[in-house]
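Risk mitigation, structural track. In case the binding assays with cobalt (II) ion fail to produce interpretable data, a predicted complex structure has been prepared as a fallback.
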Amino acid sequence: MTYIDAADAPERNIGQIKLHGADAFEGMRKAGRLTAECLDMLCAHARPGVTTGELDDLAFAFATDHGAIPATVHYRGFRHSICTSLNHVVCHGIPGKRVLKEGDILNIDVTLIVEGWHGDSSRMYLIGDVSRRAERLVEVTYEALMRGIAAVRPGATTGDIGAAIQEYAESMRTSVVRDFCGHGLGRVFHDVPNILHFGEPGQGTILKPGMFFTIEPMINLGRHQVKVLGDGWTAVTRDRSLSAQFEHSVGVTQEGCEIFTTSPAGLHRPPYAT
Ligand code: MF3
Ligand code: CO
Ligand code: CO
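Fallback model:
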């Protein structure tokens, strides 16, 4: 258990979904904003010839320069500040020596801890010119996330979120990954509830004002099945089809929801034109 885990121990696994107040919303706004600024900063660097390890170094420097801690460093043995998931990698790709090349699609996922609050977000980056089908997958995945977010309001359920995502993704002849889900967060990185990206309207947990969680659909061009490689982290599509993901951290409000990880620079989805 890391120091951060130990400090949060009383907050973990109490079996109830926390309903946060105004101060917590303020904390999440700060953490979410810095997380989004980190992803904004990386837009200019995710280019052909750059390694995923260099992007990781940039994210680490950005975090520490701004008084934040990357939540994934020393998280269950993970050692990096970002996950870099390329092409058929679904999630949890490990940064390293891999050089980005023209035509790659890359997800960068970063979680920054600011004053104890976790901002967790990811976006897709198009490396140079990419194929039309890759570009379309990225567009469908962004729209799937936003449809899931649009379903968030008090009285709706986690199943409403999943159903909105699944219905849209499958209508576009893509598939929704089942084996990874969104999660509650706040002072804890991965908390209850699980946010499945598929499901039935009306099923699951009823949403209430003050709940914080991520929505982070992984969408495949081929079939939904995934497998985890021998490194224990890298999840890939079993059929090696392309996969994409976007993630926001949100809070349920009286009226609907607040997105904590909105890009201050307006770089929500590619092309970022930087
Ligand atoms: N940021 C990821 C998420 O969205 C978690 C990454 S855990 C790691 O929940 F250890 F793989 F980095
Ligand atoms: Co997450
Ligand atoms: Co994440």
